[in-house]
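Researcher: I'm preparing a figure for a lab meeting and need a structural model of a single chain. I don't have an experimental structure, so a prediction will have to do for now. The sequence is pasted below. Please return the structure as tokens so I can convert it later.
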Amino acid sequence: MENFTAPMAALVFLFAGCVAVALRRTLKALITLTAMSPVPLGGRIAAKVLRTFSYNEEQFLGCDGAGQDVVDKRRAGIRWLANTFQKMYHNTLEESAKFVGSLSDLRFTDTNRVPFPFQKYVRENLSVASVVLSSEGPTLMDLDGNRTLDVSGSYGFNVCGYDMYKQFLARGLERVKDIGPVLGPVHPLVMDNIRILKEISGLDEISFNMSGTEAMMCAVRLACFNTKRSLVVCFSGAYHGWWDGVQPGPGNERVVRDCLVLKDMNKTSLQCIAARSSEIACVIVNPLQVFNPNSPPPNDMTMAASDIRKTPTAEEMEVTYKEWLQNLRRVCSKSDVPLIFDEVYSGFRIAPGGGQEQFGVKADMVVYGKTCAGGMPIGVVCGTSELMRRFDPEHPARVAYVLGTFSAHPLTMGAMSEFLAWARTEETRSLYDRQDARLTAFVKDTNAKMEVAGLPVRLSNYKTVFTVLYNKPGRFNWMLQYYMRAEGITLSWVGTGRLLVSLDFEEEHYAELQEKLMRAVTKMTEHGWFSGSMTNAQIKMRIGKESLHTIAKHLLQNGPLGEMLGVAGMNEEIDAKPPKTLDEFYSNIMKRKADDHAASHSNEVNQFLHLVSSSMFIYCYAIIFNDHVSAMVLGLISLFLRQVRS
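Model: Understood. Here is the structure written out token by token.
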């Protein structure tokens, strides 16, 4: 009996240990599932499933159920815009057309300005000028002699104003002209730049790169190397460059398995980080997400309905988000997980010290880019000595290979030296405060005038960043970008989603911008683009039906069902034939239900899949009121499992 009980006890302990491990892993999986953002997976599924379709002129003009009188106004509005562009930008448009077929970057941005069903008609009727000759203050001059007011911010780069960057470049070149493009050995002023960057970031070491994307690649690689972990955590909606490793959603065809996207400003996300800390190499935050948490950078291409674009209240931006970052810092510190601030956009824009200064949170690594090289391409990684190490003292063959030919290029370092010297002065700090107050006053005054005029547009800002919001349901809000361009306002390819002012914006520029914006919205209203009768819910329902119809049509024409029905390969419209009577329809549904029930109980594998899908449905019911997006995605997955047959 004694010989028998010892092995039994060992087996019991082994079994208990296995159960404990299984329970712990199950708990981690449940926390992760709850904290995960459904956007990357949902976006990937949509990218593969969604089929393109385009409106003809009548469908385009009347897609929101507008009456014929409104449709006629809109048709006249398209003609007015086309004629205005031809008169204002004739030579510039001709030159821009030469680039579209040869410069793929420009072709991409030119295509993705509006929601995809409208793109074909817009490209055929409205062209956007993309060539300029010079800049002066916050204005640009094109080939036709037009001076347009620039609120594009040059993708976030233009903080100081173009005239300041010209000075930085000229003085920077003067300082390094004797060394020329020597790479490898560094100019003495590089140490001046390092000293200032260390003071601003509060960190130990610096690495120079050629772009923000490259700097983020460097930071993640070093974090993984020095923690000996591989999982990277970022938050829903944040953009960290176009590198595969931090872009698990649409836009990247490679399946990324070591980047976990969590919900922003969510307590469960903090629990997930703590629970999986032994796997996590770093947590990356873009402080500009304060302006649109859990949402990607706003783009007119996504403006399917008015309620898609939202911004938090001033209190949420100033207080709630700060508390979120402070809690995140505490969890990362307690869990020994490095916290990386991606300040490529926010660094030197929301404050001279970026998000660290603005929110009072210290990161373990900080990534800068865009503006801090005074007009030259740059990416900078600042970090603690422990995280910046590129070699393993105990394993000589184990290294983190991070190197770039043009890092610390003399001209870049010269212009950076001038910019950093400017950024550190008290006069510059006062410019930030003044411009923040000016833009806030501009937004408040413009909103008041929009309300008095009965115009359905409002502005919202954070520091020197602002966006356009629409308080009336509509499918054509993205059209405002074209009316603003017709008034002489330069926008980036994301349109009215993200607008920027530089520190050289004076009162007269704000007055001019307000006047142009008011005229643009008024003209757009006169042309009937805000006159739709559908609610936001109805708009989304219609878009869903159109998308499903296109998918179904494609499946019928190209899939096995089409072959069975003898319609595969047909290009003409396929009309669905519903059952003639309700009884016939009910009989078909009940037969399908019986077939599914028999198949799901036919063997052990099908029974297991049925049990898993049923459990997922129950979980969806539990979370649907708090997180309907996750419930929807999980519900679709569970439906798919029910269709799998062994």
